[in-house]
Design a protein that fits this description.
Layout lengths: L2 H10 L5 H17 L4 H8 L3 H10 L5 H12 L5 H12 L4 H19 L2 H12 L4 E5 L4 H14 L3 E4 L4 H7 L8 E5 L6 H12 L3 E6 L12 E4 L12 H17 L1 H17 L12
Parallel strand pairs: 1-2, 1-3, 3-4, 4-5
């Protein structure tokens, strides 16, 4: 269990009622389950009232049970195995409609992302990207889909964009060997975090490049070397990684960069449209016949 949460519980143990002591014991032994329990469910599980659970949370220094629950979720964010995620997902869905459950979860993570992402860091990141000599994009595993999406559009907007892909850290550093203060690195990483991406971002930071992190929490290993931190929530207890919120954030990044470069970008897109038409890149679809 997280040292901070554990110390909070330990400091207050002698002041707990019998019911609160049962809650503390259950949290210590089952914090991975409690992180996704409602206050009423936790109370039912240990045999106390919901109000006792809420008082327990405030007793150990949280504003309420949601803050205690969030602390536990942050704590285990990078610790759940795939099997544990399957078990937690099945438990959370229960008898609910799967389609509705997933849609509602995605709506919630986008809403939370809107509330938590720094607008100041977002606009500073846009300025850093536009001013760059070269843009490096770092992503691995499921986040690679986000990196590929971002690089696809940035390659239309900029002349020098590199999506760094490699199976070893040595090869990553070889591709980044010329990086310096004139460049920008965008690192994308979500639980379970990629050590290679974190190390590469640290390398870029030490070389003086501007570093932008797209991740889910300030406790993420890619957050420390970042000059600009763009937070996008992901559903940490899902069988698959929920990438809807980070994708929305990346969409906003592309849109803002395009707006600020609108003059030259318009000419680029006009040229592209002519090339696509000339070489039949896209299938033309006629409208419905009348």
């Amino acid at each position: 269990m997280d040292n901070l949460l554990e110390s909070r519980i330990r400091e207050k143990t002698n002041e707990f009622s019998k019911g609160q002591k049962r809650i503390a014991k259950y949290i210590k032994e089952n914090y991975d389950k409690v992180a996704f329990m409602t206050a009423s469910k936790l109370g039912e599980t240990v045999g106390v009232s919901e109000s006792t659970v809420v008082r327990f949370a405030t007793e150990i220094g949280y504003d309420g049970y949601p803050q205690l629950q969030q602390a536990m979720q942050e704590m285990i964010r990078n610790k759940l195995t795939t099997v544990q995620r399957m078990d937690v997902t099945s438990s959370r869905i229960g008898d609910s409609d799967v389609l509705d459950f997933v849609f509602n979860q995605d709506i919630d993570v986008i809403r939370r992302t809107m509330e938590e992402t720094s607008h100041e860091d977002f606009y500073h990141a846009v300025d850093a990207i536009i001013a760059s000599r070269k843009i490096y994009i770092l992503a691995a595993r499921s986040a690679l889909a986000l990196g590929t999406f971002l690089s696809n559009y940035f390659n239309m907007l900029f002349e020098n964009v590199l999506l760094v892909q490699s199976t070893s850290e040595g090869e990553i550093f070889e591709q980044m060997i010329h990086i310096d203060k004139r460049d920008t690195v965008i690192g994308i990483s979500f639980p379970r975090y990629s050590r290679k991406v974190a190390n590469a971002m640290d390398f870029a930071h030490k070389r003086g490049a501007k570093v932008i992190a797209i991740t889910d929490t300030s406790m993420s290993p890619v957050a420390a070397p970042a000059d600009y931190l763009l937070l996008a929530r992901s559903d940490i207890a899902s069988i698959v990684d929920s990438l809807c919120a980070p994708l929305s954030l990346i969409n906003a990044l592309i849109v803002m960069v395009t707006i600020k470069k609108s003059g030259e970008v318009k000419k680029t897109f006009e040229d592209l449209e002519n090339i696509w038409d000339e070489y039949g890149v896209y299938e033309k679809v006629d409208g419905p016949s009348k």
